[in-house]
Amino acid sequence: MEKHGQVASLCLLLVFDAVELLNEIVKVFLMQLLNFAEAVAIRRRSLEKLFQILDMYDALFGVFPDLEAMVMDEFVCTEAKRVLAGLGRATKGTFMEFENVVKRETSSLC
Prior knowledge:
Elements: H1 2-42, H2 50-70, H3 74-109
Helix pairs in contact: 1-3, 2-3
């Protein structure tokens, strides 16, 4: 009977190690995706890129609750919040630049 207990303990250790390993692998890929989103958010603003930024914001915002539930590392969640805020700022800034362009073009017509 003791041998079964040792085997069960070993199996549990392997499962916990596998979960930890999977979490680290997911973390690496998530960080790459977040780094890409951050690069999009900080690049030069242009109206042509607005819909890409909005799509990225919408996608990240939509999966954020699941991300928080699945990821064990608080750093990843904090980074996701930071990138989401950056995408939001990029969207607002792009809209403001668009508004300024429209104002300039409208004033030049008068």
